[in-house]
What does this fold into?
Amino acid sequence: MNAVIPIQADIGCSDAPVLRERGQREVFCGLTGIIWMHRKIQDAFFLVVGSRTCAHLIQSAAGVMIFAEPRFATAIIDERDLAGIADANEELDRVVRRLLERRPDIKMLFLVGSCPSEVIKLDLSRAASRLSQEFVNKVRILNYSGSGIETTFTQGEDACLASLVPQLPAFEKNAPTSLMIVGCLPDVVEDQFARHLKAMGIDNVQFFPPRSSKTMPAVGENTRYLLAQPFLTDTARALELRGARYVPAPFPFGVEGTTEWLRAAANLFGVTAELFDKVTQPSRDRANRALDRHREKLHGKSIFFFPDSQLELPLARFLARELGMKLTEVGTPYLHREHMKYELAMLPAGTSLSEGQDVEKQLDRCRAIQPDIVVCGLGLANPLEAEGINTKWAIELVFSPVHGYEQSADLAELFARTFVRKGKLGLDKHASLKATDLASEAACN
Ligand code: SF4
It folds into this structure.
């Protein structure tokens, strides 16, 4: 018997109205993605072509690596470049030559555009093809934009992967169906997914991006791809152009999301319902037990999402359906209806949805609601905390391993510990704050 079971989804928010706003936004830029991508593709180097501000952003987000050879850097565009006195292309070629001379371990180099490089119209795609010819057969040189102009911070990964798709090798004609899992996943999560799929007899699985630039997955008309991250619109489009086809599924957050995501793969390969349950049930039971302790703390608490990471809808679905949280407004920077089809259907009816941002208006709505917790970017978190509203940094949810069964409880804990922290501070609210309280607060955030 085949495991073709319709994904359990009620009508939910499929047809719900969406408030569309196009005002001032408070988001990080796409350079941020370098922090997790440089850990994933272990022989790649990310050279940001930007200003000192860009360099500071990357350094402070990643921390300074003293003992390791760093795998990202910034080629600073200075006043001479901005004024057109120096030839920025020549300067860039010089920096790249010096870098590749010093670091023969680099096999793939990304030239990453920024707001300043876009403002001075430095053509990084031409630079990449010029330098590729110079370093042919030694280093693959690509480019993408991490600029903060009209983007959100997760779009850096999307732009990077989309730039890689045309470079992927092609499958031979009539190759058997192959499953591609798309989106940066921590190695530990990737291994868990690979184990589950293998136990179901699905061997033909490739992860994109891979851990090494030498093991890029092949793509072709036999490729079916499952998105592991909800912000990969351009990458999906580039894969379709290479003949790959999308496998619709919810995203693998929480027990339910992970089960339905794996089920979509199982259905594709004709795995029986019995085998699917045999492989996944022990992990589902274990993950559900681990979630119990967080349900107590989170059940009935209200949550408001500002648009930031594009993870908002899947996270809201997980928190509402598996932990009993009450959704107030769920904001997302962009709403891709095809990729979000199941997520929308699984959200509780009556949830307020918004796309884009007009930050002052959204802050007013948030203040009027007074939710128990707000998920937002760093720029809004401190002011909201100062007003007594609990916050969770959206960026932390992208930096932490949160996909899959084993990480479901960790994901819930990221929200639950905000209340634990407040509870601790609340007990002492008549006493002056001690250094230990402040330290524990810093550790929690
Ligand atoms: S790319 Fe733009 S938004 Fe990002 S750090 Fe540089 S100047 Fe700022």
Q: What stands out?
A: Residues 29, 31, 50-51, 53-54, 57, 114-116, 146-148 surround iron/sulfur cluster (CB under 6 Å). The chain has a mean pLDDT of 90. Residues 178-277 form a domain with the Rossmann fold fold (CATH 3.40.50.1980). The CA atoms of residues 171 and 444 lie 47 Å apart.
